[in-house]
Structures
1.
Amino acid sequence: MDCVEIRGGKPLCGRVEIQGSKNAVLPILAACVLHEGTSRIDHCPRIQDVFDTIVILELLGCRVWWEGHCLAVDASQISQWQIPAQIAARMRSSILFLGALLGRMGKAELPYPGGCVLGARPVDLHIKAMKDLGAQVEEKEGCILAECRMPKGKEITLHFPSVGATENIILAAVRAEGVTVIKNAAREPEIGELCLFLREKGADIREFPEGRIEIIGGVRLRDSRHDLEADRIVAGTYMLAAAITGGCITINRMPENHMESVTAVFENMGIKIERIGCDVIVDGSRKRRNIGFLETAPYPGFPTDLQSPMMALLAVTEGESRIRENIFEARFKTAHQLKAMGADIELKEREAIIHGVPALHGTQVEAAELRGAAALFLAGLRAEGTTKICGCHYISRGYENICGILSDLGAEIVTVHQ
Ligand code: EPZ
């Protein structure tokens, strides 16, 4: 699927069950390497980033197989500690094998990670933390070479609550000697889920409210089965699909307890959200209010991953709104594509000033990263006429069966192979 054509203007109605969380399962799959046995993950999403991570696990010596929507990983026979560049370059989360392999093998060799180009995305915090745990780390020719016979627990303070760096420290600390304390750790739900997965395997990890995590290393791990949380960014994307098309979508498996900042924005805009049992019904049929100002922030703030999809909605919401992107320095690329569809957006450094227009018009646009692709899908669902979105391989990295789901909700969407 590299291009899709969407004929816009149809209110989407129906029901969608939210897939397992991409950003939770990727560190969990790396964590499987820490255990000489089998780990099972229920509700594992069938998305490209998972498929690519399975390739990495198999290259390291793991056996991996599907049992329906459950993914099983047998990491009893790991023989490798190097990750080939061509696979690691596809996604940012390949960096998480740094901590996992150091923990399991005492060494790791991997290229700088790839993934969505949202700015520089350095890995300095990751590398400094591995050094803090006693690793020798060399960076040469675009590769990271780390070695440490036995990582030693330490108190590590992150100057920024980096999600990936927090995950890497946890992965390396589980099999380290002694206690590791992380201060100013990221608090995204995916961190809690990684800790839960590891506790289910017997690890001794304690989380404290002020962004402090304690890992007591050296505990023997065991086989386990984990039920993956639903993906809060995918859920937010389908909520936006109801709002932008004026439809009504029932969302099953909505991780509402991790979406307070998102649902608050919807309710402030006058978008009706009703809870019935474990379903959430999003009704976008009523007139929306503008939000005025929105900024992204580390959890529990508004997630940066919904910034571009929200921009698509604000592009067709009357009045002026401003979005400030505080996490990534280059996450407004999609604005240029939305402007080609008729959106009125002005970019000023870290801010986008948006004046809502009555309609967008279909044209050919190009996705450049995962959540930007989702924003273009949303804009296409609203636009008059047909929108051809190229670069759709980005969206298959994180959204399982999005074309099938949108079509079931009433969208006129076809994949175009060119
Ligand atoms: C994770 O990326 C997510 N990816 C991102 O989702 C998400 O946007 C991001 O967290 C923030 O929530 C996965 O979980 C696979 P960070 P990560 O380290 O770990 C800077 C998506 O669309 N930084 O918290 O890379 C960095 O440049 C993806 O699903 C350093 O300076 O995020 C950025 O400005 C996109 N040095 C900020 O911190 C470092 O060593 C946040 O990065 C690490 C990060």
2.
Amino acid sequence: MKLDAPIKAGEVALVGAGPGDACLLTLAAAKLIGDCDVIVYDALVSEDVLNMAAVGSDLIEAGKRGGRPSAKQHDICETLIDLAKAGKRVVRLKGGDPFVFGRGGEEMRALAAATIRFRVIPGITAGVAAPAMAGIPVTDRSVNATLAFLTGHEASEKSRMDWKALTQAFPVLVFYMGAKNLPQIANRLLEAGLAQQTSLAIIHAATLDDENTIISTLEKAARGEITAHSPSIVIIGDVVNERISWKD
Ligand code: SAH
């Protein structure tokens, strides 16, 4: 199957919208966004990308920030199924990559269970794009042979993660949704044995107009000295020291 073949009536394309700037869409994403009946998009999808929709296609926001995720997720799946059953050509547009902390898996399973035809178009995930914009290589031969992608929610009180094992296995940690819990994340990592002076970068709104990078240390983050805004990627480890801020 050609990934960029026209969507059929009654089909859903789960499409990654990348980090924000529309020029980072895949060719397939750009084509399908411009040729469908309805786009169901998340809050993080940029205006730039939505502007690529064809005149006349319906845009439905399915954002669920600050809401009750589980209840709303069920509604989103129902919406996708209903639209497909009504014979629409549907694009389900998600920030970054649909399968990286994007609940794309749940939507895929719901579509499959309802015997709806679907396809998946990967996107550039923020955990790679944001460090790149800041000039930080997520792997560097001199620093790391592994890296971990995590959600910042893991640092909450209910954390079941073995932080010591994590820091021993992964010299570089990339946190999604880490802005709010930044002090907790930093404290967990210090408790797990990372050095106070370990470098970290917080990249806010990567590829968008208000993109902004803060370079700091675990110690300062743990003390609550850094104000981080959502959406931000937090990257921790010595790759941050390899940074060249090429945009300047
Ligand atoms: N599926 C998405 C991630 C969704 S989770 C992906 O693959 O990128 C939402 C988190 O993604 C945000 O809290 C933030 O950590 C990150 N994020 C998304 N877009 C971003 C951007 N433009 N700049 C920085 N972080 C971003």
